[in-house]
Every structure is written in structure tokens, then in C-alpha cells.
Write a structure and sequence with these properties.
single chain; mainly alpha; 0% strand; globular
């Protein structure tokens, strides 16, 4: 049995509390109680609650965006000016996020709930990370979409990609909860979610801009 460090217990406890109760209800005292540690330990490892929340998000999102970036670079062979198949570009963005749901080492369903809450509650920590650390990768995908759909204005791509991300976030946060999920094996539901989200994305990005 693996013994978790104090830092890992704090991160896991914070993640679980956010998933269950949201960001507004989170307090250092509740975290210390669940992590079986004291307030001083939290301050020592993370400084304050805001920095702790950023660490919780960052330890999962770093890997997610690294996987996305690698998949995109495998498609365009490291040449950002190379046009790729739109369906494959969307797969590189969508699939890694849903893979995380079944990977407990990446937080699994618990972190998916955290991420869904972060979007829904407009978390300042998530906004900061997306706007500073992960924006370059998101822009790479937006550019890859533009190359795959050159007839589509960049502003239209911005809005439609934004809505695709929203649909993905909803799917991540509600994964396994729908009546449809109960009617099929989990792996089948997962594969179907990836497939349908990609179809949704392709349809939205290839639709006539004037229609």
C-alpha cells in the first residue's frame, strides 16, 4: 500500500472537496480536516488557498495539454503551417480529455467534476492558467482548425471552437450520469461520446457561415 505524502493528501483532499461541494464552499480548515493535517502544513506547501487551487488544476491539466500538443504535432509533423484533417484535429483535442475520465492517476471522474465546476463557477484559477500557460496550445488548435477550414472566418472559428469546448466540458462533467450511459457498457459509452462530439465539431465547423 502506497503511503501518500502530506502534499499529495492535501491536493487529493482539495480535489475531492471541490468535486463534491464546489469552489465557494472550500476552506483551508475543511481541507486540513480531510487531509488529516494542520493549517500550517497547507501554508507551508502552497502559501494560500488560491495557490493550492492552482496546483490542483495544474497537476492534471499539464498532462492533458501535453498529450493534446503531442497528438497535434504528430498530425502536422511539427509544422504548424501544414493543413491536417479536421476530424483528426478535433480528435486530438477531444479524446485526451475523455481518456482522463477512466485514468485514476489523472484524477478520473473526480477531476472531471472539478474541471466542470471550474468552468461553471468561472474559477479565477482556471482562467489564469488557461490565459497564461495553456493559451499557446489552444491557439495552435485554433490555427489547425483554420488551416483545415480556410473558408471559415477566424472570428467564426473562435466562436464555434468555444462552443465545442463547452460541449466537451459538459460531457466531462456529466460523464456516466445520463440514462443513455446506463443502457450500454462504459467503454462503449465513452467511445460513442468521443465519436459524437467529433461529429458535432466537424458539423459546426463545416456548416455554411451564411446559413
Amino acid at each position: 500500500m502506497t503511503t501518500l505524502s502530506t502534499k499529495e493528501r492535501i491536493l487529493n483532499s482539495t480535489e475531492n472537496l471541490i468535486a463534491e461541494h464546489g469552489f465557494a464552499e472550500l476552506s483551508i480548515r475543511k481541507i486540513s480536516q480531510q487531509a488529516h493535517t494542520n493549517l500550517a502544513a497547507i501554508n507551508y506547501h502552497f502559501g494560500n488557498k488560491q495557490q493550492l487551487i492552482e496546483h490542483v488544476l495544474e497537476r492534471r491539466l499539464n498532462n492533458l495539454f501535453q498529450v493534446r500538443e503531442k497528438m497535434l504535432h504528430d498530425l502536422n509533423q511539427g509544422n504548424s503551417a501544414m493543413a491536417c484533417n479536421l476530424e483528426q484535429v478535433l480528435h486530438a483535442f477531444i479524446a485526451p480529455a475523455l481518456y482522463m475520465i477512466n485514468d485514476r492517476h489523472q484524477g478520473g471522474r473526480v477531476f472531471m467534476k472539478v474541471l466542470a465546476r471550474a468552468y461553471a463557477e468561472q474559477s479565477e484559477s482556471l482562467h489564469h492558467l488557461l490565459s497564461t500557460r495553456y493559451t499557446p496550445i489552444i491557439k495552435e488548435f485554433a490555427e489547425a482548425i483554420h488551416l483545415a477550414c480556410p473558408e471559415l472566418p477566424r472570428e467564426t472559428i473562435f466562436w464555434r471552437f468555444h462552443f465545442i469546448i463547452g460541449a466537451l466540458t459538459y460531457t466531462m462533467g456529466d460523464f456516466g450520469a445520463s440514462s443513455r450511459a446506463k443502457q450500454m457498457p462504459e467503454h462503449e459509452y465513452f467511445n460513442k461520446s468521443v465519436e459524437e462530439l467529433i461529429k458535432f465539431g466537424v458539423a459546426s465547423l463545416t456548416a455554411d457561415v451564411n446559413s
